[in-house]
Specification:
Length: 331
């Protein structure tokens, strides 16, 4: 029997057509599938549902919930699910789905393209082929397939705007790749997520990301508190540091913590873990109760915090969730 694959389409460049106002999603899933060679479509029993028609810049928490609910509802009827999606926010969607659908028993694979599928040089075909193969692999979890690489969803980062090699697996080996031997799965990179899969789709959208710049005005925290933000991720400097001379961010961290805000600190360096216990400029932040993001990508830290704050308001549970790996997002 051929693997049963559900193809969920959401828009993005892969499904885009030129319009007077620039590229915009226009192709339906059936048309996308028709552009695949028979050798590919004959290998799988593909069912198509068009769920969204959006450039991924317009994909937000409400759309993440729509996608997660569709995947959850269909999980028992298929061997695997492929989601076509714009590349610009695909890493966020892949990360948040890893938390919302933790323990999903089938492969769920996001993919897209740098050039529309109708373009003669499109990378969409290759990416879809990789995604379909991964979806048929019986390796459970949320993944992102691009340029013959398969990345664990919560480790993916978009690092290039136009190159076909647009995504990297950050601080984690590839889950799989395609070469002359076919789809090569790398079991050591697949987290063992035991336990039943439940749809946990509540999210808190009051999470803010600050990229620290030298001299950042600490009053930004007052503004965020006034706007009822409940969580902040700070991309701090290097291995872990924030300024307290002249402009005292540390004092503001204390005020934020007292107001019930959860602050997660990570590094603006893409690679390798941060460790705020190393320097005084980091230790002082830890003393205010901030949570370390360690080797998490920014996309994973932000979406995990949105997800965790959507699950609970209990500070102990928030800390516990944030400090351990839920889907392979932390080593
Ligand atoms: N702007 C597009 C999107 O993210 C880019 C792409 O799909 O590659 O939807």
């Amino acid at each position: 029997m051929r693997p049963r694959i559900l193809l969920l389409t959401t828009g993005g460049t892969i499904a885009s057509l030129p319009t007077g106002a620039g590229l915009a999603p226009g192709l339906a899933g059936e048309e996308l599938a028709r552009l695949l060679p028979h050798g590919v479509t004959d290998a799988y029993e593909i069912t198509i549902h068009d769920i969204l028609h959006l450039d991924s810049s317009n994909i937000q928490p409400e759309e993440w919930q729509t996608i997660a609910r569709q995947v959850f509802a269909q999980r028992d009827a298929y061997d695997g699910i492929v989601i076509t999606h714009g590349t610009d926010t695909m890493a966020y969607t892949a990360s948040v789905l890893s938390f919302m659908l933790r323990g999903i028993p089938i492969p769920v694979v996001l993919t897209g393209a740098q050039l529309p599928m109708t373009h003669p040089l499109s990378d969409g075909m290759e990416n879809l082929r990789t995604a379909l193969a991964m979806a048929a692999s019986r390796v459970a979890g949320v993944f992102l397939a691009f340029d013959r690489k398969v990345i664990l969803g919560c480790r993916a980062v978009k690092t290039r705007t136009t190159d076909f090699d647009a995504f990297e697996s950050v601080n984690w080996p590839l889950a799989a790749n395609v070469d002359g031997k076919g789809l090569q799965i790398h079991p050591a990179a697949i987290p063992n997520l035991s336990g039943a899969c439940a749809l946990r789709d509540r999210l808190c959208d009051k999470v803010f990301l600050i990229k620290l710049t030298p001299g950042l005005d600490p009053e930004i925290f007052d503004m965020l508190l006034q706007m009822h933000y409940r969580g902040i991720v700070i991309e701090a400097f290097g291995a872990g540091g924030l300024h307290f001379v002249r402009r005292d961010l540390i004092a503001k961290l204390q005020a934020a913590a007292q107001a019930g805000m959860t602050v997660v600190v990570c590094s603006q360096c893409l690679y390798e873990p941060s460790d705020f216990s190393l320097y005084e400029v980091g230790q002082r932040a830890l003393e205010q109760g901030v949570i370390q993001g360690r080797d998490m990508t920014t996309e994973a830290a932000v979406t995990k915090l949105m997800w965790v704050l959507g699950q609970t308001g209990d500070r102990e549970i928030i800390r516990d969730y944030m400090e351990r790996s839920l889907a392979g997002e932390m080593a």
